[in-house]
């Protein structure tokens, strides 16, 4: 029996985006109203998700849609981070002259896609959600269409993403052909272990997914797209699709293919090792903060995948915890980027940070804790994220993964610490504007407090996460 | 039955002739029109074998969208000026063997597909687990699952189309400045004093009219 109560959040957000579109068509100059209304509708969506505590797994639409603790947690994380990103980036969008009615509508539609992806229990549903999400993101990447870099990033993202979608679909068709169904649970029960074409199907789907979270060797698009698209979109890119894709990764690996762990484990281990090392090494030479964040997010995805590679509940939990802390760290980083503003011009090079500690003690302190946390220095939240990952990896005695992770953490610490050195010890160059809008300050303070005080009471988040059990 | 075969041969002949004319006609716009004719006759053939949904989709998608898009491209780029010289010039001799080779490969593939279907009918039965009711029309059977079991996917597909429409508008629509638009209300409500001005023209100097 289909119970639509459980998809109220998705239905509400779709209806509200259509309503906002209509409002925008018939009311002139309504960009501000629509932006604020879309934030409010996201808050209502959050309330709708929180309103329905999950005590057992619920299957909808002929078992194609699954609502369980993991999906609820990931949806809450997605919507919450979307609200914070929208709060933080409002001023930036306004100053860039791209403050149209379509911007928040596209954001909302990509969030619908992500929510569908997170809950999907079927290859077709998952693919439709993925397409809805990425189609909105293509448009958003090239939203600042008069800017050459932005159009380039949009086209680049579109072409490469279409290629990866093609590979993913091919993998889906192989899996369907050799199991007779697209349903994850059905695939799990009808899996023939010794079928090599089926494992190539798994590989194709994993390639498509790895592209979405920009894991090495499918990361080439990330730096260009992150740099080219408007910073508000980059902050969206760096945070939200990763949450959704990680949720799909967990579902895809641990529901249909749980019995063929030996076939995919090496792939995930390779993706994880390559991403960690590449993210650490390639970021060293970067001059642009947005490119730097792209490489650092590649590295962070490597750690999150390391948690998935270990094939245990502990690993999944540590991965989910990692992505939660990653969301707040990146949010804080982008809030700091939005604050580097002078006379409606935004600065995004590392040199522009030179000596800002003299005039902006609060901003540079926030930068300090966020960068320390990204580097994984105790007692900040980023340390605990990595700590849980390594603990899960070592518990299942995959020592080499932990060792490589530690080495790349040390390498990555170099470029994070270099920025701190530039902020605090280099001569002063640019004086930025001091006053910022409340939403931006609010987001920065929230993420800074989360990072700074996570260690005082880590169990509240850990307890929430520890209820997730897939295996 | 004889009427059926008469209709079949009628449509099939038109389809083949128009397919040949797509490549053979000298004018590119004519080629596109032959392509449209080809699509229409093939959709008639689909309807004749009882695949009315496929035929109608063929009409809507290929004739309504794709072929019209081709036509627009051809007219916009003004390639109709460039005459098709495939069958007349010496250059065609290098292309034709290659084209024939590809056509041969496609033909062999078709024979394999149709032959496999003809000589191994149990293949189809063993793999089809979909309960098809042969007494219903195609549209009916598709609608039966599309609006019940797969309603969420149907709606999601609609959302994807909506997003692609918004995206196309966002990325291409520009509000141009200085475009003159006709507004009836403005025209009707114009008074004499705002519209007509009496100017004393000095001789040999003229008047300056600002627009």
Give me the strand/helix succession of chain A.
HHEEHHHHHHHHHHHEEHHHHH
What is the percentage of strand-forming residues of chain B? Answer: under 5%
Low-confidence stretches of chain B: none
Largest sheet geometry of chain A: 2 strands, antiparallel
Q: Can you offer a commentary on this structure?
A:
The complex is a heterodimer of chains A (471) and B (211). In chain A, 72% of the residues lie in helices and 2% in strands. Chain A is mainly α and 471 residues long. Chain A has a domain at 260-471. The longest helix of chain A has 32 residues, at 148-179. The mean pLDDT of chain B is 82. In chain B, α1 (2-24) packs antiparallel against α2 and α2 packs antiparallel against α3 (52-77). In chain B, 68% of the residues lie in helices and 0% in strands. Chain B has a domain at 136-175. Chain B has helices at 2-24, 28-48, 52-77, 92-119, 122-127, 138-146, 151-172, 184-188, 192-195. Chain B has 211 residues and is mainly alpha-helical.
């Amino acid at each position: 029996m289909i119970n639509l109560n459980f998809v109220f959040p998705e239905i509400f957000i779709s209806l509200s985006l259509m309503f906002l579109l209509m409002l925008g068509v018939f009311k002139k100059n309504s960009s501000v109203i629509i932006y604020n209304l879309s934030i409010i509708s996201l808050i209502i969506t959050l309330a709708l998700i929180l309103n329905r505590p999950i005590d057992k797994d619920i299957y909808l639409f002929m078992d194609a849609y699954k609502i369980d603790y993991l999906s609820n947690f990931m949806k809450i994380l997605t919507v919450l981070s979307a609200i914070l990103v929208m709060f933080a980036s409002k001023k930036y969008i306004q100053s860039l002259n791209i403050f149209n009615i379509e911007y928040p509508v596209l954001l909302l539609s990509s969030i619908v896609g992500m929510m569908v992806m997170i809950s999907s229990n079927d290859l077709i549903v998952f693919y439709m959600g993925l397409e809805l999400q990425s189609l909105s993101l293509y448009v958003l990447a090239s939203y600042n269409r008069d800017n050459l870099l932005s159009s380039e990033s949009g086209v680049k993202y579109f072409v490469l993403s279409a290629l990866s979608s093609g590979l993913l679909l091919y993998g889906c068709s192989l899996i369907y052909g050799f199991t007779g169904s697209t349903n994850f649970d059905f695939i799990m029960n009808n899996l023939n272990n010794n079928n090599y074409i089926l494992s190539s199907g798994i590989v194709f789907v994993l390639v498509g997914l790895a592209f979405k979270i920009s894991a090495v060797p499918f990361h080439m698009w990330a730096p260009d797209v992150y740099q080219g698209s408007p910073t508000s979109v980059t902050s969206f890119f760096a945070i939200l699709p990763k949450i959704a894709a990680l949720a799909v990764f967990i579902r895809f690996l641990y529901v249909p293919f749980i019995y063929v762990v030996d076939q995919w484990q090496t792939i995930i281990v390779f993706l994880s090792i390559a991403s960690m090392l590449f993210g650490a090494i390639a970021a060293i030479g970067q001059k642009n903060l947005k490119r730097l964040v792209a490489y650092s997010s590649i590295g962070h995805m490597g750690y999150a995948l390391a948690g998935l590679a270990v094939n245990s509940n502990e690993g999944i939990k540590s991965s989910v915890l990692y992505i939660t802390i990653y969301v707040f760290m990146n949010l804080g980083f982008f809030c700091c980027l939005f604050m580097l503003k002078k006379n409606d011009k935004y600065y995004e090079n590392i040199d522009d940070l030179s000596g800002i500690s003299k005039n902006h003690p609060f901003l540079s302190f926030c930068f300090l804790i966020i960068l320390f946390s990204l580097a994984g220095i105790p007692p900040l939240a980023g340390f605990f994220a990595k700590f849980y990952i390594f603990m899960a990896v070592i518990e299942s005695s995959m020592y080499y993964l932990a060792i490589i992770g530690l080495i790349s953490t040390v390498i990555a610490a170099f470029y994070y610490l270099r920025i701190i050195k530039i902020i605090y010890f280099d001569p002063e160059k640019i004086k930025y504007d001091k006053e910022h809008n409340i939403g931006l300050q609010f987001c920065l303070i929230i993420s800074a407090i989360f990072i700074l005080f996570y260690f005082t009471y880590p169990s509240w988040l850990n307890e929430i996460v520890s209820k997730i059990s897939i295996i | 039955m004889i009427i059926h075969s008469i209709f079949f041969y009628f449509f099939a002949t038109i389809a083949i002739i128009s397919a040949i004319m797509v490549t053979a006609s000298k004018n590119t716009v004519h080629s596109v029109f032959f392509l449209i004719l080809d699509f229409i006759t093939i959709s008639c053939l689909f309807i004749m074998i009882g695949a009315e949904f496929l035929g109608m989709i063929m009409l809507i998608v290929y004739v309504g969208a794709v072929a019209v898009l081709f036509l627009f491209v051809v007219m916009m780029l003004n390639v109709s000026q460039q005459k098709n010289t495939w069958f007349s010039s010496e250059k065609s001799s290098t292309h034709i063997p290659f084209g024939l080779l590809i056509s041969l490969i496609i033909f062999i593939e078709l024979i394999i597909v149709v032959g496999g279907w003809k000589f191994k009918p149990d293949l189809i039965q063993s793999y089809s687990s979909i309960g098809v009711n042969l007494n219903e029309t195609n549209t009916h059977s598709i609608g039966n699952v599309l609006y019940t079991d797969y309603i969420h996917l149907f709606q999601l597909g609609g959302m994807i189309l909506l997003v692609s429409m918004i995206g196309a508008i966002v990325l291409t629509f520009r509000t141009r400045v200085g475009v003159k638009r006709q507004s009836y209300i403005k025209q009707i409500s114009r008074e004499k004093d705002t519209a007509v001005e009496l100017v004393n023209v000095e001789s040999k100097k003229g008047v300056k009219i600002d627009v």
